[in-house]
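Priority: low. Protein: RNase H type-1 domain-containing protein. Input follows.
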Amino acid sequence: MSRNMLILIAASDHWDFRIQLTNEAILELNFWKNNCRPLPRKSLFPVSFLPDRIVFTDASGFASAGFAVQTSNKIVHKMWTPDEAKKSSTFRELSAVFITLFSLLPDFQNRLVKIYTDNQNVVKIVQAGSMRSELQEIALKIFNLCILNCISLQVEWVPRELNTTADFYSKLFDFNDWYVNDVYFKYFNSLWGPFDCDVFADYNNHKLTIFFSAYWCPDTSGVDAFGFSWNTYNCWLVPPVHLVGRALNHMLICKGKGTIVVPKWTSSCFWPILWSSSNNQYKSFVKDFVEYVKPSGFFCQGSDKNSIFIHSPLTFNVLFRFKHSHWESLKQFSNPDLKALTVSLCSVVTASKSENTLKKYKGYFKRFKYWCLKYNLPFLPTTVCTVAIYLNYLIQSGVSTAVLNAAYYSIKWEHDLNLYDSILNDKLLEMVLEGGIRLLSKPLKRKEPITPTILKSIIAKFDKNDNLPGLRICAMMLLGFSGFLRYDELAHIRSSDLTFNDSHLQINIQKSKTDRYRQGNTFNF
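Result:
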C-alpha cells in the first residue's frame, strides 16, 4: 500500500525535493492515516504457527479453481469471461487466489490461511504488489479482504506436480453456462415474480441475489441445488438438459413452485414427466406454459461458442411457464366431430374483424415486430415497457393519430388472438396513448358542404343526352347527396340492387362501413 509513494520518491532529484502528489499516492496516504492503528501489529521476529487452512489454487485459459483441504474438500470453480480469458497467466493465477478467498470467506475468517500456487509471480505480487495497475488492483483486493476479515495470509509456490487437484478442476470446462436473455427474464419476472432464487447459476450469469451453483464461487448461496429445499422460494430454473428430469422430480418432492425453461424435445427422457400420453396433455402440475417456436435471441452465449442454445434462431422450440392457453385446452378433444369444430374455431375468431381491419393490423404489427427485433426486445408476448417505448417512438416520429391508434390496437389484437394476458389494458399504456393523441392531434378542417346550387351547376354542365359519362356523374352526385351515401357505397351498387317503382326508386346497400353485421340497408328515392 505504499508503491505509488515509493515511485514518487524514486523519481525525486534529492531528499529535499518538493513532490507533487498523485491521486494514487493520496489514496495510499489516506489508507495509512485511517488504518495504521486498527491494523493488527506484527512482530519483527514472528513466531511460526501452523496454518488453520491449507488451500491450493490454479488457473487455465478458460477457468480458475481452488481446493480447500480442511473444509470438507470444498471446490471453487469459475469460468473466465471473454475479457478475462485474454489476460496474462499471472492475472488469471492472481485472480484465482482472490476468487478462492472470496468464495470461501466464512471458512477463512479469523484464521491463518496458507495458499499454494504454481505461479511464482503471484507469491511476489501478494507480498509486495506490482507495477502493473491491473495486477496491483487485484493485490489490493486480496489485501483489503484479509484485513477486513482478520485473515493472516501466507502464499507459497509449489511445483505443478504437487498442485494436481486444483490443476484438474481449473481444466473443467462448463458447457452449460448459457443463460436466458435479460430481456425475457425481466419480462417474466414482472409477470410472475418476483423470483427469489436462481437455482442453476454461477457468478457470471446469476439473475438473482440468491443463487445455487455447481461449485463454490463468489456470492453463491450454496453448492448443489438438490441439497436444498425449494419450497420456500419462487424459483427461476434454467437447468442443464441432463438435469431437467431431476429438477422436475425435486420440485415435486419439495412441493415447490417456480418457472422452468426447457427445450421441447419430445423424445428426451424428461418428456414423460411433463407430458401425459394417455390424456394427450401436460401433467396436472404444469399450471401454465407457452411455447416459443424457434425463437431468436432467447439464450445468450456462455463459454461454449458452439452451443446449440446460442444459435439464432434456435433449431428447436422452447417451453416456458405462461398463462394457460385455451387453444392448448382445445387439443384434449378426441371425438372427430368435436375436433372438426375446434379446427374451424380459429376462423370464427378472426371473423370478429373485417378483412380490411385484419390486413391493417397485420401490417402494423409487422412493423412493431421488426422494431423489437432491432433492439432485441420481446414482441409476442411483449411487455408494458416495450409497448410504451414503441408508442413514444411513434409519437416522437410525428405520425398521425390514426397510425398511433392502429399500432396500439394491432398489438392488442395479436395478443388477444394468441390468448395471452392482455398487457394492453395497463393504465400506463392508456395514458401514453391518450397523451400521444393529444400531442399529435391537428385542428379538424371540415370540407365545404355541397349545396343545391353546386349540384345545379354540375347538372347544367354534364346533363346532356349524348354524354353518357356526364349523365353517370350527375346520377352519382344526386344519389349520394339525397341518400347520404359514401363513395364506396355508391361504387358497389349493382343493377340487381335497384328496384324501380311508380313512385320511387329503391336501392339496396349490401355492404356499408356502418353496417358491421351485413344486415343490409334499403334507401328509397
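The two ends are 101 Å apart (CA to CA). The longest strand covers residues 53-59.
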